[in-house]
Amino acid sequence: MARHNSRRKSGRRSPLAAAALIGIGLLITGGAYAGASAAMAATSDSSVAASTLTVEDGQKLFQANCATCHGLDLQGTDSGPSLYGVGELAVHFQVSTGRMPLQAQGPQALQKPVQFTEEQTAAMAAYVQSVAPGPTYPDEDVLDGNGDVANGAELFRINCAMCHNVAGAGGALTEGKFAPNLHSTSALNMYAAMVTGPQNMPVFNDMNLSDDEKRDVISALLYMQNTESPGGFELGSLGPVSEGLFIWIFGIGTLIALTVWITAKSN
């Protein structure tokens, strides 16, 4: 009788061994991924901490970019006014909107692409505030947009609409100056403009508008920014000027074209 060979063939493995290998591979991969994620998070946290700028950094940025016009000690020069008393709020407004550094002398500073990051802007503002204190940032609830929208709209019409237009679309002033539109202005810069009075803007101190009333005005403007025009096309929100122009160009133009077509058809 022939003998059965009890030796297993070489290279043959148990199914349990394959499953174990797969499990070990998954554990190693998951551990490596978790370790890498933790390392990246730690690196990100350290980079954020390292990127926080100080007042000294703000001083260096100011001296490199602003001192030519405003003086090394903020005293002002023939090319730019003194910054004593303007405060960090005014610096934030001018720099965060791209108005400063000034591109060229003119009737007023124009908005242009912002040249500094938020941290750099905050550092320069903190430096100016440390040297010559002035208006500072408001409480967060002033900018939250949860004020009385109806009262804010009325206050805006009384105090601001003659320059900025009742819909905040801006308007022309004298000698090449203009009031900018407010359709993309941030709540903080709305407040800063009311408190610091940049360029042609009057200053609205607490005797003119309290912080609660400023909050209402900001809430009304934010509401207009976030609400579509109920009348359809806004046409620039410039009122009867753009509406009348639209009628003349398209309305009267359509009538003239129809008259010419009827005449040509009859002939």
TrEMBL record:
Major site of localization recorded for this protein: membrane
Molecular function (GO) terms listed?
heme binding; iron ion binding; quinol-cytochrome-c reductase activity
Transmembrane portions of the chain: 245-264
Residues holding heme c 2: 160, 163-164
| A Pfam family | Cytochrom_C
Quick one: which residues bind heme c 1? Answer: 66, 69-70
| Cytochrome c domain: residues covered | 53-132, 147-225
Superkingdom, according to UniProt? Bacteria
- Keywords per UniProt: Cell membrane, Electron transport, Heme, Iron, Membrane, Metal-binding, Repeat, Respiratory chain, Translocase, Transmembrane, Transmembrane helix, Transport
Topology in the lipid bilayer? Multi-pass membrane protein
Q: Which residues form a coiled coil?
A: none
What Enzyme Commission number(s) does the record list for this chain? 7.1.1.8
| Any one Gene Ontology cellular component term annotated for this protein | plasma membrane
Which subcellular locations apply to this protein?
Cell membrane
Question: What's noted about post-translational modification?
Answer: Binds 2 heme c groups covalently per subunit.
Q: Which PROSITE patterns match?
A: CYTC, TAT
Q: How does it assemble?
A: The cytochrome bc1 complex is composed of a cytochrome b (QcrB), the Rieske iron-sulfur protein (QcrA) and a diheme cytochrome c (QcrC) subunit.
Q: What is this protein called?
A: Cytochrome bc1 complex cytochrome c subunit
Organism name = Microbacterium halimionae
